[in-house]
Design goal:
Blueprint (H helix, E strand, L loop, with lengths): L10 E4 L2 E4 L9 H6 L11 H19 L5 E5 L9 H15 L3 E4 L5 H11 L4 E6 L13 E5 L2 H10 L4 E3 L4 H15 L8 E4 L1 H16 L6 H4 L2 E4 L2 H18 L1
Parallel strand pairs: 3-4, 3-7, 4-5, 5-6, 7-8, 8-9
Antiparallel strand pairs: 1-2
Length: 254
């Protein structure tokens, strides 16, 4: 009987799942479906199976990156040509970070990501690429020392945040903007330990920075301390200095 005196509906338990009323009538059990090699194979594309794939991505990522030294994630466009000044700036940044004892993590693709990986590798640093499965597949660039390919953006994003002491954003498109604002949101809401977010390239980022300052801040949508989470610069050495100072502050607090 139920608490109100009515008859409890008949139910079936499928692990942690409870099925009641007509929904409990299943022609086979979970074990039977698992062990039967006949029938459709579309079960490998269902949501419960995807959960295992997602779990595997986290396990592989955590396992591969657990011993990573202190690192900085560099974001930037996959479309930056190798003869563009932004490519050289990314290369210089990767080298400077390596020379200052930081591993470099990128999305592992071409363009600015390749530039940062290349600069790091050429300077003797540890170069990491976290790739993503996309319709326009690029594969990991040749300058990656440790590479992981992900199916799911959210698993990949977790690795960027968990294993970085700072983010540096070179000029980029929607992907770079997505990572930029997610990082700012996580820091603003204290979901992650505060770390710097550097915008490298004033000609490219100044308009966005001004809009945030003059429209978003002036409109009361963020506070002064939120704007202070961003550091805008043209200078690679200045970017690395910001990273160093934040890392020292983190060490002092721990």
């Amino acid at each position: 009987m139920t608490a109100n005196g009515g008859k409890r509906p008949e139910e079936k338990h499928r692990g942690p799942v409870v099925l009641r009323r007509e929904h409990r009538n299943e022609p086979t059990t979970t074990d039977e479906r698992l062990l039967d090699s006949r029938g459709p194979s579309d079960w490998v594309h269902t949501d419960p199976w995807r959960v295992l794939r997602i779990q595997a991505e986290f396990v592989e990522g955590f396992g591969a990156l657990a011993e990573l030294p202190r690192a900085v994630t560099v974001f930037g466009s996959a479309r930056t040509p190798r003869d563009h000044p932004e490519y050289q700036q990314g290369r210089d940044l990767g080298a400077a970070l390596a020379q200052n004892g930081f591993a470099v993590i990128t999305g592992g693709g071409p363009g600015s990501m390749e530039a940062a990986n290349r600069g790091c590798s050429e300077a003797g640093g540890f170069s990491v690429g976290l790739g993503i499965e996309l319709p326009f597949e690029h594969g990991l660039n040749d300058w990656v020392d440790l590479g992981i390919n992900f199916r799911y953006f959210f698993a990949r994003k977790t690795m960027f945040v968990k294993y970085s002491q700072a983010f540096v954003c070179l000029p980029g498109g929607f992907g770079t903007l997505d990572e930029l604002f997610e990082a700012l949101t996580l820091v603003q809401t204290k979901k992650v330990t505060k770390f710097p977010v550097v915008l490298l390239g004033k000609d490219y980022w100044q308009g966005l920075y001004d809009w945030i300052a003059n429209t978003v801040l002036e409109g009361g949508k963020i506070g002064e301390k939120d704007l202070a989470l961003l550091h805008l610069t043209d200078d690679v050495d200045d970017a690395v200095k910001v990273v160093h100072e934040a890392y020292r502050a983190w060490e002092d607090a721990h």
